[in-house]
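Whiteboard transcription, Tuesday session. T.W. wrote the C-alpha cells on the left side:
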C-alpha cells in the first residue's frame, strides 16, 4: 500500500498503528493532519449496502476519510446513510460499467462484497452463479490489468456433508450442496489461480454466520441468529427456521470487519492461503442462543419450525479450525458469545425505533 506520512515518518504505513496512536495524539490535542497517514489512492467497495458492506464502509471512512472511498451496489443508500462517502450504482455483472468506475479513480484496494447469499441463491441459482462468479471474474481481470489489491469473501458454505463436522480444518473435503457453496468453492480456486498465474494480490476469508445489529442479513442460512435478537426484544417470541440443536460457527460484525482489515494489512509474504482462510469466533446452537438471550429477557419464548434452510445448515460444519489465520496474520477475535449477546442487546435497545415487547 502506498502512503506518504507527514511529518512523523515513524508512523509507518499501517492503519492499525494509526488507530493505536490516534487516541494519544487526540488527548494531546495534536491536529490530525500531523499524524494521520495520507493515502494517495482510493478504495472501492462493491455490495456496500449489504450487511457487511455498511459496517465496512463506515470503518474504512473512519480510518481513511470519507473522500477516499467509493461505495457501490445495485441498490441505492438511504439519504445520509453513508455519511459523506460517495455512492455510485454498479451491477458487478456489467464488466463495462465496472471498467468505467475503475477508470475514474486510481483504486489501490477493492473490497468485492457484492453477492447472492445461500438461501436466496437456492431460490435463484442462475442469478447466484452470475453475480458470484461472473462478478468475481470481472473483478479479478480488472485487478490483473489495473494492479489493485482485492478482498473477496468466501463462506463456510464451501463445506458439505462429507466434511469433518467439528474443528473443520483449513484443508478439508469441500463438497458443497448449494449453488452458493458451488460459487464460493469455484471462486476460491479462481482467486488462487489469478494469484499464482498473474500475481494478483487477492485475499479471502471463509466467513461463518455474521451477527450485526446495524443492517439486516441478506438471505443467508444463519439469518436466524440475528432475527432472534430483534424478535426477542421487540415481540418477546421467535419462530426459528432451524432446529434447537443446530450448531453453527459465528462471528460478531466488529470482528468480521477487523478480520478483513487485519488480513488486508498483513504483508503479502505472510499470506500462505490464497484460496480462502478458515475463520471463526465461536459456535452456538439455536437453543443455546435462546438460552443466552433469556438471561436478559427471562420471558422470551423461542419455538423451532425448520424449513428448507435446515438441510443447508445440516451440511455445514458446527465448528471451524482457524489456526492458520491465527498464525499467519495474528487473527484473534475480540468478542465471545457472552460479550456479543450483551452488546447486541444493548445496541438494539438504543435504536430510536426500538419498541420493547
Ligand atoms: N453475512 C454473512 O453471514 C456472510 C457469511 C459468509 C460470507 N458472506 C459473504 O460476504 C459478502 C457480503 O455479504 P453480506 O452479508 O453483506 O450480504 P448482503 O446480501 O447483505 O449484501 C450483498 C450486497 O450485494 C448486492 N448485490 C447483489 N447483486 C449485485 C450485483 N449484481 N451487483 C452489485 N451488487 C449486488 C446486494 O444489493 C447487497 O447489498 C457476500 O459475498 C457473502 O457471500 C457473508
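and on the right, the sequence the group agreed on:
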Amino acid at each position: 500500500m502506498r502512503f506518504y506520512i507527514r511529518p512523523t515518518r515513524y508512523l509507518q504505513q499501517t492503519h492499525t498503528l494509526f488507530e493505536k496512536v490516534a487516541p494519544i495524539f487526540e488527548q494531546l490535542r495534536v491536529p490530525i493532519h500531523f499524524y494521520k497517514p495520507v493515502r494517495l489512492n482510493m478504495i472501492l467497495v462493491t455490495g456496500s449496502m449489504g450487511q457487511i458492506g455498511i459496517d465496512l464502509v463506515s470503518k474504512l471512512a473512519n480510518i481513511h476519510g470519507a473522500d477516499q472511498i467509493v461505495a457501490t451496489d445495485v441498490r441505492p443508500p438511504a439519504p445520509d446513510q453513508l455519511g459523506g462517502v460517495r455512492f455510485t450504482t454498479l451491477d458487478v455483472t456489467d464488466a463495462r460499467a465496472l471498467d468505467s468506475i475503475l477508470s475514474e479513480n486510481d483504486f489501490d484496494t477493492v473490497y468485492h462484497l457484492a453477492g447472492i447469499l445461500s438461501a436466496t441463491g437456492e431460490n435463484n441459482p442462475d442469478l447466484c452463479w452470475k453475480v458470484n462468479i461472473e462478478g468475481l471474474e470481472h473483478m479479478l481481470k480488472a485487478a490483473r490489468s489495473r494492479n489493485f489489491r482485492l478482498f473477496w469473501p468466501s463462506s463456510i458454505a464451501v463445506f458439505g456433508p462429507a466434511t469433518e463436522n467439528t474443528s473443520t480444518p483449513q484443508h478439508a473435503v469441500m463438497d458443497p450442496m448449494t449453488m452458493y457453496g458451488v460459487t464460493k468453492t469455484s471462486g476460491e480456486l479462481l482467486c488462487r489461480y489469478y494469484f499464482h498465474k498473474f500475481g494478483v494480490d487477492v485475499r479471502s476469508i471463509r466467513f461463518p454466520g455474521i451477527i450485526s445489529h446495524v443492517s439486516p442479513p441478506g438471505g443467508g442460512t444463519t439469518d436466524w441468529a440475528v432475527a432472534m435478537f430483534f424478535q426477542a426484544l421487540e415481540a418477546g417470541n421467535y419462530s426459528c427456521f432451524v432446529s434447537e440443536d443446530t450448531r453453527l460457527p459465528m462471528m460478531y460484525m466488529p470482528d468480521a470487519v477487523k478480520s478483513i482489515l487485519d488480513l488486508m494489512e498483513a504483508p503479502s509474504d505472510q499470506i500462505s492461503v490464497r484460496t480462502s482462510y478458515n475463520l471463526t469466533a465461536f459456535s452456538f446452537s439455536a437453543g443455546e442462543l435462546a438460552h443466552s438471550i433469556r438471561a436478559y429477557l427471562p420471558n422470551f419464548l423461542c419455538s423451532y419450525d425448520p424449513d428448507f434452510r435446515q438441510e443447508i445448515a445440516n451440511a455445514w460444519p458446527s465448528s471451524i479450525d482457524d489456526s492458520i489465520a491465527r498464525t499467519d496474520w495474528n487473527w484473534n477475535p475480540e468478542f465471545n458469545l457472552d460479550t456479543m449477546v450483551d452488546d447486541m442487546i444493548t445496541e438494539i435497545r438504543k435504536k430510536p425505533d426500538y419498541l420493547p415487547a
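Someone added at the bottom: The chain has twelve helices and 14 strands.
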